[in-house]
Amino acid sequence: MELTAGRGLRRVGALLGSVLAVAVTLGACTPATSTGQQPASRGGTLTLLSATPIATLDPQRVADPTVAALLGRTLHRTLTAYAPSSDASQPARLVGDLATDTGTPSADLKTWRFTLRNDVRWQDGAAVTCADVKHGIARTFATDVVAGAATDALAVLAVPRTAEGKSTYAGPYAAVDAGDAGKAAFDKAVACDGSTITFTLSDAVSDFTDMLTLPTFAPVKKDGDPGPTGTLPALSDGPYQVDGTWNALTGGVLVRNPRWSPASDPIRKAHPDRIALVTGGDAGAIMETVLADGTDAQRAVALTPAPPSLQLQVAAVDALRARSLTASTGVVDYVVPNVRSAVFANPQVRVALEKSTNRAGYAAALGPTFAVRPHGSVLPEGMRALASSSAPASPSPSARASLSASASAAPSDTGAAAASPSPSASASASAVPSAAPSTSSSPLTGADPVAARAVLTAAGMTLPVPMTVAYRPSPAADKAMAALVAGWQAAGFAPTLKPIADTYFPTIAAPTATDTYDVFWSNWSPAWDSASTVLPPLFDSSFNLTTAGTGRDYGAWSNTDWNAHIRTIAALPDATTREHAWAAADATVRADGAYVALAQRYAVHVAGSEVRGLAPHPFGGGTVDLAVIGVTS
């Protein structure tokens, strides 16, 4: 099953999706004491092998989180960044990078102010200035020529849009008259005063400082700008620079940036003298090379994760296990019931679906337990929202009751006729068992078809209950979905799988999809360490459900009170309080059966025997952290 996961407010087609990386040993839950995790020393050449070409080094054109993680540790810095960590049990720690700290927000969280460090230099020796940061962000508005990366800046900065939804600011390459309203708005939204940069947002964004970790917010020096075509690498303000030319298909070499100062950088250790990036090779050949650990591979890391066929081999051999790393991609697979269908309009039937879902069987069909783990929430393990043991697993019965009457109704402005639960179903909702499973790190148990059948019978359903299930096929996906079918059948459902091989996500988001399917498979990953990049994109019906389709809210779940409530969460200034509130909001959605989480994905990387400091990137889509890695000198 391909890991085409969404990220933040957009869908990113990436090698493994994105985000929170949690270091674990193969077959265990704590980091191993291994060759790869010994302290690294300065010097030598590190070789990175990837089957996927790296088409661009331009920070405003990078979409793949694994590439963003690589560039963010070598060539391009941002105002804030996540610090490296060797403690898998702790959430990622946000720190100032180009900025002296993580910023100062206004009381209403609509204005954010940052002070730049005064000792950061470009590779040509010029100081990195506020104007450079502003120019980099301005490039994201040139959507006609600079495309592919995140567009969060367009979404949050206080720059007006046209009636068609296009920004009134067209970016730095557009020819405009003096006093152009769009440019004036951008200049006000991103303002420089010496080394201080101030952002003005259209709405309160409490985790804006986390958003700034994305490469789309990296500075670009005007006279080092790759330009509208983006054929040249931008100048580096990180510890490395491109040596010679960069080949989009085969890669290139990074050497030390002589203008980089370790004293100016709280994050990057920059241990290797050189980093050779070899891209576009055969995935199987890459793995064979690193596993063999020949002379040329002893200081190499396979950025391409080990396929399932080799993961068990790595786990079974002590020498291989000692130089391997398992990192969470942040990708969570899940299914959503269609609340507009005659079957799942009833919340009790949605509860039965959750109870009969065999997460353990699904995960086992996809790979070993260290690569795919049963999981109970769309929020991946390790996020701040799930870090607190006091975060509720499910809302109170009264909270569920308040949801039930409106959870299946589409907003009045969508133009779609939605099925509503019967009065009896709404009246008895407070007695419906919670659909919210545990989100602990321990594996979830298999399905409980007996309990699920009892729920279906109590709901007055005639067994078996027919349902059609849309999913994206592959050999592994077919086996995984078969495991789900067995559990659903035992509970009294009669599922029919409907594989959609091409244009899967557009197909299930189309207006007619809710008339055709009862259940949809999907996956998602957050863009940074906040549930704000997961729950609103997936379940806020106010922007998902339109006459054009369901957006990412494939099951058409809708609750106007919940939508309004998450607006208040987004305005909470304290991160711990905010993420705790997001956890409760997630529990509310799960309790109403809006989705059933299945499993979380992990990437297995193997390194040569002379690689040191092997660790996962905190938000790199399951890749290694180049901030701390090194080789023996």
Structure, explained:
The protein has 633 residues and is α+β, with helices and mostly antiparallel strands. 27% of the residues lie in helices and 17% in strands. Strands 1, 2, 14, 15, 16, 17, 18 and 19 form an 8-stranded mixed beta sheet that branches. A 5-stranded mixed beta sheet has the order 10-11-12-3-13, covered by helices on one side. Strands 6-7-9-8 form a 4-stranded antiparallel beta sheet. The two termini are 40 Å apart.
Which features characterize this protein?
633 residues; alpha+beta; D-Maltodextrin-Binding Protein, domain 2; Dipeptide-binding Protein, domain 3; 2 domains; 8-stranded mixed beta sheet; 5-stranded mixed beta sheet; 21 helices; 17% strand; globular
What would a concise description of this structure say?
With 633 residues, this protein is of the alpha+beta class. The chain is built from 21 helices and 21 strands.
Structural class: alpha+beta
The tally of structural domains comes to: 2
User: Quick one: how many beta strands?
Assistant: 21
- Class of the largest domain in CATH? Alpha Beta
Oligomer state equals: single chain
- Roughly what is the average pLDDT, rounded to an integer? 85
What low-confidence regions span 5 or more consecutive residues with pLDDT below 50? 7-36, 389-443
The CATH architecture name of the largest domain reads Roll
Q: What gap, in angstroms, lies between the N and C termini?
A: 40 Å
Rg, Å, rounded? 24 Å
Put simply, the count of helices is 21
According to CATH, the fold-level topology of the largest domain is Dipeptide-binding Protein, domain 3
Outline: globular
CATH superfamily of the largest domain, please? Dipeptide-binding Protein, Domain 3
**Percent in helix:** 25-40%
Strand content: 15-25%
Characterize the largest beta sheet: strand count, sense, and whether it forms a barrel: 8 strands, mixed
